[in-house]
Design a protein that fits this description.
alpha/beta; eight-stranded mixed sheet; six-stranded parallel sheet; 14 strands; 36% helix; 18% strand; globular
Length: 379
């Protein structure tokens, strides 16, 4: 396999020197790059990868959310193209540079088939696979669910013919009998992220718990509300950010209990700032849920590098991160409320937030991940 391209001004690897890096994304386009308006974990992941890779190589980003194939804009070392979903192949073939590497996300058959056609003419396609369709299709009626699962199973099978996979949970590989070349990477930490400040929290901050993300049962939203309401202390608050199927339940709880503050869905940058202002972050995942089996623990990593203590239960895919959390024994009301009280009354040891930040940034920085991916692509 020929080597990955190198940026101008840097030492180039042997092999092709003018090939391109193409990233095909549904969630990240010009707006996400320029305004930093990120609201989902997948958007944050894809943007971070594009920006990190662009520090090493020129990147062509094809955003499958635009309306004009000819639209293109330059953002630093990133050339942004707009294309209608799911067709991106013509944007790739229109490039004057030599055949290079293509990164796509997921295993939608329409995307994968285009990758395989491009492979026939010299491109090297790779797929980021970090999420599963099973959660979405589980809500469909039986016939529609069968059709959807068959559709994505086809894409999953076709994706094994790509040059390789990049996964965050190797269950995608080990749970099937499919043979595929892959690399497992951790959830990335921004290289520019500043360390948490050591400052004594004021009295109000010491009483505030916070949770952010999709508001649903798998993420323990209902469980957290019930557990918090069982704590009778009037001086404690629970701040909730995000949206989802249980948004109405959260709004109703906030109306009945003034200690519960619902802030809605706001940009990720504001979420990160809020995380550093509270006493404790709460991270719950139903260990029996499909989403936990194929865990993409981006929110947990985001919490851990904030410098704020994190209460979390153990779930499949937490893999090594449990040493940095305040563990909740079980996914039930008694365990959650009991641990919250333990924290409020200083009955538990809290991991060193500064040390957690240093270790995660060293081991999981995006610059390090990008280098590992480059080595994987080189073969």
């Amino acid at each position: 396999m020929s080597s990955a391209p190198a940026p101008s001004g840097a030492s180039r690897p042997e092999g092709r020197t003018d090939a391109e890096v193409v990233v095909v994304s549904r969630g990240v386009g010009l707006t996400a790059l320029q305004s930093r308006a990120i609201t989902t974990s997948s958007q944050k992941f894809e943007r971070s990868f594009v920006e990190s890779y662009a520090k090493m190589y020129p990147v062509k980003l094809i955003h499958l959310g635009g309306h004009a194939r000819s639209s293109r804009t330059k953002v630093g070392n990133i050339e942004v193209h707009q294309s209608n979903f799911p067709w991106f192949m013509w944007n790739v073939l229109a490039a004057p540079t030599r055949r290079g590497v293509i990164f796509v996300t997921g295993y939608d058959p329409r995307i994968i088939v285009q990758c395989l056609l491009l492979k026939l003419v010299g491109y090297r396609p790779y797929a980021f696979i970090y999420d599963t369709h099973l959660l979405a299709t589980s809500k469909f009626r039986p016939i529609k669910r069968w059709l959807a699962n068959t559709y994505f199973a086809l894409g999953f099978s076709l994706a094994t013919r790509l040059n390789g996979w990049i996964v965050l949970n190797d269950r995608f590989v080990t749970s099937s009998r499919l043979k595929v070349r892959y690399i497992k990477i951790p959830v990335g930490v921004e290289d520019e992220l500043s360390p948490p400040q050591d400052s004594k929290a004021d009295e109000q901050r010491c009483r505030v718990f916070m949770v952010a993300g999709t508001l649903n049962e798998d993420n323990g939203t209902g469980l957290l509300l019930t557990a918090f309401q069982s704590i009778r202390r009037p001086d404690v608050e629970l701040h909730i950010y995000g949206y989802g199927p249980l948004t109405d339940l959260v709004c109703s709880a906030a109306e009945k209990d003034r200690r519960i503050k619902y802030h809605g869905a706001i940009p990720n940058a504001q979420i990160i700032a809020a995380q550093r202002r509270v006493a404790c972050l709460v991270h719950l995942r139903d260990p029996k849920a499909v989403t936990s089996q194929y865990a993409f623990p981006s929110k947990l990593v985001e919490y851990l590098v904030s410098g704020t203590p994190v209460l979390s239960n153990i779930f499949p895919g937490i893999e090594g991160l449990d040493q940095y959390i305040i563990p909740i024994k079980d996914f039930d009301e008694e365990s959650v409320s009991g641990r919250m009280l333990d924290f409020l009354e200083d009955r538990i040891a809290v991991p060193d937030s500064g040390l957690t930040f240093e270790r995660l940034k060293e081991q999981q920085s995006w610059s390090r991940i990008s280098r590992d991916i480059t080595q994987f692509v080189r073969g």
